[in-house]
Structure formats: C-alpha cells, structure tokens
Amino acid sequence: MIDIDKSLEIAKDAALLAGKFLISANNDAQKILVDDGRDIKLQIDQDAENLITEYISTRSNLPILGEEFGHKGNLGSAFWVIDPLDGTSNYFRNIPICAVSIALMHNNEPILGVINDFFSENLYFASKEKGAFVNNKRITVSNISEHSKGTIVTGIPSKKEYSKEYFSRMIDDFKCWKKVRMIGSAAIANTFVAAGKAEIYREEGIFLWDIAAGAIIVKEAGGKISMSTADNKFRLDAEFTNGKV
Ligand code: IPD
Ligand code: CA
Hints:
Order of helices and strands: HEEHEEHEEEEEEHEHEHEE
Bound molecules: D-MYO-inositol-1-phosphate, calcium ion
Shape: globular
CATH class of the largest domain: Alpha Beta
Number of domains: 2
Number of strands: 14
Largest sheet: 7 strands, mixed
Radius of gyration: 17 Å
Helix content: 25-40%
CATH superfamily of the largest domain: Fructose-1,6-Bisphosphatase, subunit A, domain 1
Distance between the termini: 37 Å
CATH architecture of the largest domain: 2-Layer Sandwich
Structural class: alpha+beta
C-alpha cells in the first residue's frame, strides 16, 4: 500500500533540497562529463541525482529510476522517476529555465509529481485526484479552445533524427498555432500547460523522467494527457493539452 500523501511530502522535500543545491552551485565552473552531438551531461546532474536518491531511499522502499544512473534490479509496478536537472543545457548556459522533476509511477501511470522551478522559486505538485498546485495555490489549465489562439510548447529531443521529413511535419503543425515556444525544459513546458500559460505540450521521443511529473500535474490541473508506451530505454511520445484545443 502506497501512502500518497507521505510520498508527496518526500518528493517535495527532495526536490527543494536538490533545487537549493543547484542554485548554490550555479555560478561555479561546471564539470562536463559528456558533450557529444546535441547531448550535454554535467557532474552536477549526477551530484543532484545522488542527493535526491539518498534522500528518497532513506524514507521509501520503492525502487528508483533516475536519468543519470538508471535503476538497480526490477522496477516492479511502483517506482520513483527522477530527473535531477531537466534543462541541463539551459543551466550550463545560465538560462534560468530548468527544473528538478520527481514522480511516483504506479501501474504505468504517474500518481504524484513535483517540479521545482528553482530559479523562479515555484514548486509545482499534484497527486492523483487531489488537484494541482504551485506553492500551495491551485492551478488550472486555460480555456482557450481554438488552435489559432493557442500556444504550443515543444522541443527536439537531443537523440531525435534531424530529418527533413521530421521537421516538415513539425512545421506543418506549427502553422496551426498562434505561438510556438521551445524553451529547453520539458518539465517547465508542462508547468506552462498546467498553469494556463500554454495550451499544448508535444514532444516525440522524450524520456519518461522528463515528463512523468508534468503529466500528473497537467492532468490534475484539468488537462488531458496522452503518452505512448515507453520503449526499453524509457522513451515515448507525449502530448499534454488543456483538453480543449
Ligand atoms: C531535455 C529537456 C528538453 C527536451 C530534451 C530533454 P535534459 O532534458 O527536457 O526540453 O527537448 O529531449 O532531454 O537532458 O535537459 O534533462
Ligand atoms: Ca536531466
């Protein structure tokens, strides 16, 4: 039996702890571990994941899947999903659009999620059937129903093939929307939809840790989420909307 309220408190505290750590180290020279093609990984990604994993694992027996260290053993039907720093490139380049993202999965769906937008001091969270909040204030999706009045927030995953066909499909879709935003953090993009600042988030080939917390936050804010089944590397296609566009 999972105690959702207790688990949510654990996730919030872990996300706040990691956020403080990431802010305190933001002006330090960052050690680069991988700078390959369009991917960048920093030592601080790993340090933040270790901090979160240590915090959670001393308070919960559930297995953990993290972006940096994967998982140990079988995940089973209930497990934590951690992105210690979503928007690593933004963080590295001093663009203050990045977040800590922590979710708890049960039977293939996120049942709680926390996104710490630490540069803005906004802590987003939600748990199943209990609504979505930012800093304890309830949030809801927008009421915009026409594509021509709506904003799409999207991204191009670093491991995506950069083919003409892929971009041409993307541009065709862009033409339907009033505004297009690509902000470099799927988690923050998800908070935009949940808080009514954008109408749709869509990304193909995104990783589960990038969007698991965002999915439940959007859903609990009144939105509609759709996610394909993740492959063996935890990649999937995701579309989260306000449920009206
Ligand atoms: C990235 C961001 C970005 C998305 C990439 C992700 P990371 O996460 O979420 O918005 O387009 O696919 O990999 O690597 O900064 O945690
Ligand atoms: Ca990350």
